[in-house]
Amino acid sequence: MTVLAHSHDKGLHDRLAGRAIVFVGLMGAGKTAIGRKVAQALDLPFIDSDHEIEHVSRMSVPDLFERYGEPEFRSLERRVIARVVREGARVVSTGGGAFMDENTRRLIARRGLSVWLKADIDTLMERVTKNKNRPLLKNPDPRAVMQRLMDERYPVYAQADIVVPTRDETRETIAAETVDAIMRYLDGEPRKDVSS
Ligand code: S3P
Predict the structure, then answer these.
(1) Cα–Cα 20 to 30 A to 152, which of 24, 29, 70, 189?
(2) Which protein residues are within 6 Å of ligand 1, measured from CB?
(3) 100 alpha carbon to ligand 1 midpoint, in Å?
(4) In this predicted structure, what is the pLDDT of residue 130?
């Protein structure tokens, strides 16, 4: 299945009222893969903030970290996300550290709708070991780094408007659950985990 047919997405664009749907969560949670599917399903443009950063800087994320350091990367990330979130209804997947920035969180709260893809450590580690492009995990004990990031970040990610538990399931299933959670949120239901 490539596109999720959705019966109740009529009026979605009206209900979004120009807000961006912003995916947050740790490395390996599937923000890009699921974000792209959700964008297709809802017929919205899709932007990945790391790709956008690489495009404007003409450098890869690991090169940016190495040559300019994390603070410079974070400052570029903040600016890029501020721009793409202000550009209207769309789906934006952010790098795992982006939502830790208070200004970014405030902007997303005002101009977007945040979705935390919440995963356990085994799911995250399984996904990130396939891809070596993550400077923060260039460490002799990447699992310990991931655990520390979970401890630091999960309380902050928990401020997202919607929480979607993700696991070892197909992208289509998680994307469909995410679309349902967004619809329920927009219908004014109180926030809840889709699994509960
Ligand atoms: C980071 C996550 C990465 C990327 C950078 C820093 C983080 O994005 O922005 O390596 O601080 O968690 P993904 O979450 O898309 O891997």
Answers:
(1) 189
(2) 27, 31, 50, 61, 95-97, 134-136
(3) 11
(4) 80
Q: Is the pLDDT of residue 11 over 70?
A: yes
- Domains parsed from the chain with CATH numbers: 11-183 (3.40.50.300)
Task: Indicate which residue's Cα is closest to atom 10 of ligand 1.
Answer: 134
Number of H helices, E strands in the chain: 9, 5
pLDDT tens digits, 60-98: 999 999 999 999 999 999 999 999 999 999 999 999 999
Q: At what angle do helices 49-57 and 70-86 cross, to 10 degrees?
A: 110
Q: Is 156 exposed, middle or buried (0-12, 13-18, 19+ CB in 10 A)?
A: middle
Q: What is the pLDDT of residue 189?
A: 61
**Max CA distance (Å), the chain:** 49
Distance CA 20, CA 118 (A): 19
* Res. 1: pLDDT tops 60: no
Instruction: Please write the tens of the pLDDT for every residue from 142-173.
Output: 999 999 999 999 999 999 999 999 988 999 99
Coil/strand/helix, residue 101: coil
137 alpha carbon to ligand 1 midpoint, in Å? Answer: 10
